Structure formats: structure tokens, C-alpha cells
Amino acid sequence: MAFTSWAAGTAYALNDIRRATTQQSSGLVFKCTTAGTSGGSEPAWGTDIGTEAADNTVVWTAVSSVFEELNVLAPNAIIELFELHLDASLHGSTDVYRWHNGVNEAVSGSIIWNSNDYDYMPVGAGGFEYNSSGSYPRPSLTLSNANRLITTLIILVNAVTPGNDLLGSTVKRIRVLKKHLDGQSEADPFAQWPTEIYLVDRKSNEDVNFVTFELATELDKTNQSVPKRAMIQNVCQWQYRSSECSYSGSNYWDKTDSTVPTLKQDKCGKRLSSCKLRFGGAGGTDPLPFGSFPGVGLTQ
């Protein structure tokens, strides 16, 4: 079935199913679990299965948009789509390349979903998984290089950022049912599995036949840590006289908190005492925009 979009000021019965008015990459639609009348504006939809959204007197519960189909005796064909999004700062372009990963008895040649063309290209992808423990998945994506398209693309981006090899580009994996593709009787761009988003972290192989990339999540990129701010007790991490620090006064001190006469000599000592001189007020008790965590390590 194609899902009907939510509407304001509408009476909904128990088990009615509606979709958000904008596309949800979560792959969810919403079942009415408390009947009533919807509000004047769209509710804040949940992003996980089972989460609830209050909508005036209606309560919506998030459900999978493809669960019902997967539980029939002969489910519709599952189509796997891939998108490669370039980054202007790294690759000099925001172009998007779209492929689907093969031809079977249900689909042949290029296809259209959500008004986007997906070209046929042999694609090998593996390592996609969900788990709540251990390391993050690092899937691999292997693209056919028979027409030299990928090598040509790598050459173009390397002319912008030498040695980049498409690192930092975004890969999206989208899975849909054949009956929801554009042109089908039940076409619906809102019916899909959750979109999986990765970044190209490494080119692991390139030859005349195939190019293989190793993918990583945003949280698992090289030289990245979470949280990005270190829990430092006594050294301010803000850049002095920036939007973070916000000091723009005409009183100046050096790194030892001694008064100096000119802006050129003005250097913050990055200590709490340095911050109090600039922001503490006459009694030194005003709130401070100190860019660190003075309470770290203290015990009661």
C-alpha cells in the first residue's frame, strides 16, 4: 500500500496509518494507537520503532513502513540502492551518483525511485550490521570499474585535493520494495528501510575491474573522538577574542595576568583567573564563559 500523509484537524480511528508530510530517512510510518482529532501542526515524529508522538488528542506510534510486506508468504522483491555524495570542500563538487546493485527477474536496467534515476552497476557491499556492543561496523563497497567511471572520478577529485581518493564522500544505502519504485501501481517514496549513512574512510583497492572502499560511521572516522571537547579542568579551550570567548574589551592583560597597555600585547593566560579579569565584574563574581570544566576531579 502507498501511505497517506498526515493532515491537520482530522479525526483518526484506531490503527489508522499515516506518514509524515516530509520524507523520513528512518523508514517509519505512524499508527494511531489512541483515536482522536489531530492538531493544527504536525507533531514531532519519533525516529525509533515504538516511540510515541502526541498530536492533540491522537497518539501515534512509530512502526516500520515495510514490516507488513516482509511478513507475507511471498514478499515483494527487495531493491538495494546506493548513493555517493561528493563534498564541495574536498572534491570541488556536490554531485551525487546513484546506482542499484544488479539485475534480477524483477528489475532490469536503470530504475527510478523518489524521482531519482539509479543506474545499473555491479556493486558488492558487505559488513552492514546493527549491534549494541563492540566496535562500529566498517562495511566495504566494491564498484565496477569496467567503464573507468570510478577511476575517472577519483582523478577529478584528486586534482582538487591531492591523494583524496574520494575520502570524506557520503555513501547512503537505501533498501526499498520493487512495488514502491516510481511507475509501479503502489509507488511510494516514503516506504523504505532506514537509510544507512557512511563516509568513505579508505580506498582499499583499485584496478581495471573494481574499486573497493572501506566505509565508516561519522563516529568512527580516523583521528576523531567523542566527545570532541576534552574534559580539562584548568585550561580554557576557547579561542581568545572569538565568538566562543566573546571578549572584545579595551582592557588588556598578558599571559601572566599582568596589565599591558596595547591590544597587540593582550594575551589570555587561559586560566580561570584570566577569565575573571575580563568577565568577572567589579567583585569578580559575574558568570564566566570559561571554556573548560573547573569542577572536574572535585569530590564531595
List descriptors.
9-stranded mixed beta sheet; 300 residues; mainly beta
| Oligomeric grouping of the chains | single chain
The total of helices stands at 4
Helical percent range?
Answer: under 10%
Give the low-pLDDT segments. none
Distance between the termini: 60 Å
Largest sheet: 9 strands, mixed
Structural class by SSE content: mainly beta
Let me know the average pLDDT.
88
- Shape label: flat
- Compute the number of strand runs: 15
Instruction: Provide the β-strand percentage band.
Output: 25-35%
Q: Compute the CA-based radius of gyration.
A: 27 Å
Strand order of the largest sheet: 9-10-8-7-13-14-15-12-11
- How would you spell out the order of helices and strands? EEEEEEHEHEEEEEHEEEH
Number of domains: 3
Explain this structure:
It is a single chain. With 300 residues, the protein is mainly beta. The protein has 3 domains: 11-65, no CATH class; 78-220; 231-300, no CATH class. 9% of the residues lie in helices and 27% in strands. Strand 5 and strand 6 (58-64) form a beta hairpin. The mean pLDDT is 88.
